[in-house]
C-alpha cells in the first residue's frame, strides 16, 4: 500500500479526506482544520450581517446561499465559512469543497481570495500533489 493510503487509514480517513485536512493545515493550521471539520452549525448573527453588507458592497450576482456557518455563492464555485471569528475561503474542486487560502477578517476579502484561487487553481502549488493523494483513496 502507498504511504498516503497507510497514513489515511491510520487517521481513519479516506485519501481525499486526508488531502483536505493537509490543505487546511497548510493554509491555517489547527483553526483551519477545525473549520474544515466543523458541521454546518447555526450561523452567528453578526456573521450573517457581515455577509449581507459585503454582498451589497460587492454588488456582483445573487447573494450567497447560507447553510449554518457556510455561505455558498451560486454558480461561482466558491464558499465562505465562518469560524474562530474569521472568514475562510473555499472553492469547489473535483466535487468537494476545498480550503482556498488563509482566513480573512472580512467576508469580502475571503470571497476575493476564493474567486482568485478559482481562476488560478490549475497552476496553484500543491494542487497536483493533493490530486494525487485523492486518487489513492
Automatic annotation (TrEMBL):
Top-level taxon of origin: Bacteria
Residue spans of biased composition, Low complexity class: 103-113
Residue numbers spanned by region Disordered: 96-137
Keywords, comma-separated and alphabetical: ATP-binding, Helicase, Hydrolase, Nucleotide-binding
GO terms assigned for molecular function: helicase activity
Name of this chain's protein: SWF or SNF family helicase
Lineage per the UniProt record: Bacteria, Bacillati, Actinomycetota, Actinomycetes, Kitasatosporales
Amino acid at each position: 500500500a502507498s504511504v498516503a493510503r497507510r497514513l489515511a487509514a491510520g487517521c481513519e480517513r479516506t485519501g481525499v479526506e486526508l488531502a483536505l485536512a493537509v490543505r487546511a493545515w497548510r493554509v491555517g493550521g489547527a483553526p483551519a482544520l477545525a473549520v474544515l471539520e466543523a458541521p454546518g452549525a447555526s450561523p452567528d448573527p453578526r456573521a450573517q450581517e457581515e455577509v449581507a453588507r459585503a454582498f451589497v458592497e460587492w454588488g456582483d450576482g445573487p447573494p450567497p446561499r447560507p447553510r449554518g456557518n457556510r455561505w455558498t455563492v451560486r454558480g461561482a464555485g466558491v464558499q465562505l465559512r465562518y469560524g474562530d471569528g474569521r472568514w475562510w475561503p473555499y472553492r469547489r474542486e473535483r466535487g468537494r469543497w476545498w480550503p482556498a487560502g488563509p482566513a480573512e477578517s472580512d467576508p469580502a476579502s475571503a470571497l476575493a481570495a476564493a474567486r482568485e484561487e478559482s481562476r488560478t487553481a490549475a497552476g496553484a502549488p500543491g494542487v497536483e500533489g493533493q490530486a494525487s493523494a485523492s486518487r489513492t483513496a
